[in-house]
Automatic annotation (TrEMBL):
SUPFAM superfamilies: Annexin. Keywords: Annexin, Calcium, Calcium/phospholipid-binding, Metal-binding, Repeat. A pair of annexin repeats may form one binding site for calcium and phospholipid. Gene3D superfamilies: Annexin. GO terms for biological process: response to cold; response to heat; response to salt stress; response to water deprivation. This is Annexin. It comes from Musa troglodytarum (fe'i banana). It comes from the Eukaryota.
Length: 316
């Protein structure tokens, strides 16, 4: 559920393009005008704005935005203007080019997104970068991460509600044994986590808890400094409750020394039209502080105004 507000009726795409072009003219860019237009238009309308701008002014809207805006504000606006699939493609490409075992963005894209959304992101990746995502992940990730991430971004998960209860019990036992044996990169563990439907995995995690007395993620914390175990825990959290996982990403982005503006922009631009209300509610429940108040405290200027507009701040 989105908390974004849109004017009714919406201006025409050509009217919005005229306003945006005005914002770029003169000695200084009118960032407030850019925010008032782009932060309050739904995805389909933003797509039409971008198409119409190219028709009228002969260039992709991304070019003047890239030229006129700077730093974190520029990054957030450029992500927001992209279609969801193209946005995920850009984020995934950044990860594979600067590969780090601690980066969880590929897991977010592969697990939080619906199957069709992941497929669309992979198509957009191929169209934009002239390579396939699986190929780039295989080329850049190493060792057990390659074994985990290639099937994770390759799988076309079944999304129905049907569950095989005997399978969930047997695979809970497999997972428990491999975790007990400290063999978490075993192909059976990877096969289960990367190919089973989310409904099936929820049943398996439930059986694991009932049979062995601990949530699976608690047993995977045996070595908190092990990045591969942390990646497995991230996958499981994204399957169990993606909104809770995303709330934690935002919380860590804000709470650590020095705000992680990249993570903040990524989650807010990708979820503003999806489940931002749930994320905001979870943030307040976990921190006793409203998300817009936390963002206001840790950001400034146009970047702050833009993020507040996307998360539905009343005064934005």
């Amino acid at each position: 559920m989105s908390t974004l507000t849109f004017p009714s009726p919406l201006p025409s795409p050509s009217e919005d393009c005229e306003q945006l072009h005005k914002a770029f003219e003169g000695w200084g860019t009118n960032e407030g005008l850019i925010i008032s237009v782009l932060a309050h238009r739904p995805a389909a309308h933003r797509r039409e704005i971008r198409r119409t701008y190219a028709e009228i002014y002969g260039e992709d809207l991304l070019k003047p935005l890239d030229k006129e805006l700077t730093r974190d504000f520029e990054r957030a606006v450029l992500l927001w203007v992209l279609d969801a699939a193209e946005r995920d493609a850009v984020l995934a490409n950044e990860v594979v080019r600067k590969w780090s075992p601690g980066n969880r963005v590929l897991i977010e894209i592969a697990v939080v997104r619906k199957t069709e959304e992941l497929l669309a992101a992979k198509r957009a990746y191929q169209a934009r970068f002239k390579r396939c995502l699986e190929e780039d992940v295989a080329a850049h990730a190493r060792d057990e991460y390659r074994k985990l991430l290639v099937p994770l971004v390759s799988t076309y998960r079944y999304e129905g509600a049907e569950v095989d209860m005997s399978l969930s019990k047997s695979e809970a036992k497999i997972l428990h044994q491999k975790i007990k044996d400290n063999d978490c990169s075993n192909e059976e563990v990877i096969r289960i986590l990367t190919t089973r439907s989310k409904a099936q995995l929820l049943a398996t995690f439930n059986d694991y808890h009932n049979e062995f007395g601990n949530p699976i993620n608690k047993d995977l914390k045996a070595d908190p400094k092990n990045e591969f175990l942390s990646a497995l825990r991230a996958i499981i959290r994204c399957i169990i409750c993606p909104e809770r996982y995303l709330e934690k990403v935002i919380r860590l982005a804000i709470c650590k020394t020095g705000t992680d503006e990249g993570a903040l922009s990524r989650i807010i631009t990708t979820r503003a039209e999806v489940d931002m209300k749930q994320i905001k509610d979870l943030y307040y429940k976990r921190n006793s502080v409203a998300l817009d108040s936390a963002v206001k405290k840790d950001t400034s200027g146009d970047f702050e105004d833009f993020l507040l507009a996307l998360i539905g701040h009343e005064e934005a």
